[in-house]
Design a protein that fits this description.
Elements (H helix, E strand, L loop, with lengths): L2 E7 H7 L12 H18 L3 E5 L18 E4 L6 H12 L4 E5 L3 H9 L3 E3 L1 H32 L2
Parallel strand pairs: 1-2, 1-4, 2-3, 4-5
Helix pairs in contact: 2-5
Amino acid sequence: MALVRILVDGYSLLHRWPELAAGAPRHSEAARDALVEMLTQYQDACGTPVTVFFDGSSGRRRKPKDQSGQAVEVLFSSAGQTADDLIERAAHRFQPYGEVLVVTDDFAERNTVSGFGGSVASCDNFIRLIQNALVVLEENLNNHNRAERNRFSRSR
């Protein structure tokens, strides 16, 4: 099955990526905005839709900056539920459409998702996946730009 969506436990990923929004508290708007921006770049590179979930009870539930055309879906849990609850429900509901990847360091959540057939990744593995994808994207863009410059130079 093809990967149809990546579901990310936002605060779990933020806690494993201290250099992202360095100096900002992990539950701050700045940290969430930096994560959403990085996930947007990753989605641009890989083409797979991404949804990031945050626990809504731990701070303001402001959507990240620049919601116009936002490629990454951002969801906050409501009172009485956790981001883990939402992720597990979404992973289960997406099953008929293809493979879903859940990114979290919560072992209970990973066991639950893999128990009903979903794929899981640790935050460290996903960070490496993002970094590698962005390196490949940059290399492809550089190669494309070089080829276009050469083509333009020859046509003069």
